[in-house]
Amino acid sequence: MPQISRRTAELGTENAFVVLAEVNELVRRGKDVISFCIGQPDFATPVNVQDAAVKAIRAGRHGYTPSAGIDELRAAAARYMGTMRGLDIRPEHVVVGAGAKPFIGYAILATTDYGAGDEVIYPNPGFPIYESQIRACGAMPVPLHLREARDFAFDPAELEARLSPRTKLLILNSPHNPTGGMLSRRDLEDIVAILRRHPDVWVYADEIYSRLCYAGEFASIASAPGMYERTIVSDGTSKTWAMTGWRIGFTANAALAPIFTRWITNTESCASQISQWAAVAAIEGPQADAEAMRASFLERRDLIVRLLNEVPGVSCRTPGGAFYAWPNVTEACRMIGAADSEEFRKRLLAEAGVAVLADIHFGARVPDEGQHIRFSYAASKQAIEAGVARIADFVRRNTRAAA
Ligand SMILES: Cc1ncc(COP(=O)(O)O)c(C=O)c1O
Q: Which residues line ligand 1 at a C-beta cut-off of 6 Å?
């Protein structure tokens, strides 16, 4: 039997998809499950965006586009990202891809060499694709721990301690998946001061949740003087306009734009032309739907945080952005006799019919930070109320049983 490569053996995954398959199987067998697993808006894409896609189809816009994207979308994305960050982003420095996700791999490929000991610092817990791609690209993953006491930002001193002559890339993600944490302007100033002492380190600013900020204004590291040149700004349409399945993301960086373009030529050729025209409409059209979705997420955030804090043994910080809650369930695990958050998650699914993800799905558990689970609260208010009521009931029932 021919062998499968070591690189492939190292490739990780996004466990949300694995748990989702588990949930779907249970549902197929007739179990009633309330799911908080999947990180995508539960709204339809705005109608003006749908109309733009239909128009593109009817106008015969069916072919390949340049690998970097159609001029109209590069210009719209440049204006959009530039305005939000106070930057003059040129359209030729923007590259459009099939979602923001592929750029994570392209950025690592463009800044590190395979097997050379090049290091990439990334947030832990964090979007699992960071670590997976760092390993698959043959670089060394260096996790940077997020701290509950800092509302899930990291301590800049810990960043400083992890930077070395081998560091090639720092990945930042704000607002953050899975904690909902945000880097404040003060945090960013501290990070910039440290990075000025390390001029050879690139920054990947994963800002896919840039429009879903509740605890203050969105702030990007790229806005600080001298930082845009070394920062890959990454944003997209998935979360802001409920377009996860349309697959449109974009990055901005002058030096790396031609390199990302070449990677795209080597892989998907270009993002779907139809989706690109839809994305132009999303960015340039009325923003009422995007604003209404954000307002709805904010209401649901307040609801789920309040309800989770009423569950015995659970404490939940108020997340600053995105649509995730990351409650601490250390005490609840102890109360019901679960060894850890993963056992808690599995029992919650099997015994209470509530699907969540566990902290270990987002990297190795941070020492001394306890046990956490992740909720995507892009779910209806009824689902949030019923789901958290099931969890409270589950903890109470099992506490009595454990006692
Ligand atoms: C932090 C983070 N970055 C990137 C992505 C990928 O987004 P896209 O749908 O644009 O590929 C996600 C999606 O869940 C995410 O949570």
A: 39, 99-101, 127, 173, 177, 206, 208, 236, 238, 244, 249
pLDDT, residue 10, reads: 77
Residue 14 Cα: closest atom of ligand 1: 14
Atom index in ligand 1 nearest the CA of residue 236 equals 10
Q: Where in the chain is the domain with CATH 3.40.640.10?
A: 61-284
How far apart CA 351 and CA 371 sit, in angstroms, is 19
Q: Which CATH number fits domain 61-284: 3.90.640.10, 3.40.1160.10, 3.40.50.720, 3.40.640.10?
A: 3.40.640.10
CA 37 – ligand 1 centroid, Å: 14
pLDDT tens, position by position, 216-228: 999 999 999 999 9
Find the DSSP H helices in 11-127. 15-28, 47-58, 71-85, 101-111
> What residue ranges of the chain are covered by domains with CATH 3.90.1150.10?
6-44+289-402
- DSSP three-state, residue 44: coil
What residue ranges of the chain have pLDDT lower than 50? none
Mutate to test the pocket of ligand 1, among 38, 106, 127, 234 (most ligand atoms within 8 A of CB): 127
Closest CA to 311 of 288, 326, 327: 327
Q: What is the pLDDT of residue 403?
A: 67
Provide the pLDDT for residue 400: 74
pLDDT tens column, 60-91:
999 999 999 999 999 999 999 999 999 999 99
Q: Alpha-carbon distance 270 to 234, whole Å?
A: 17
Q: Domain 6-44+289-402: give its CATH code.
A: 3.90.1150.10
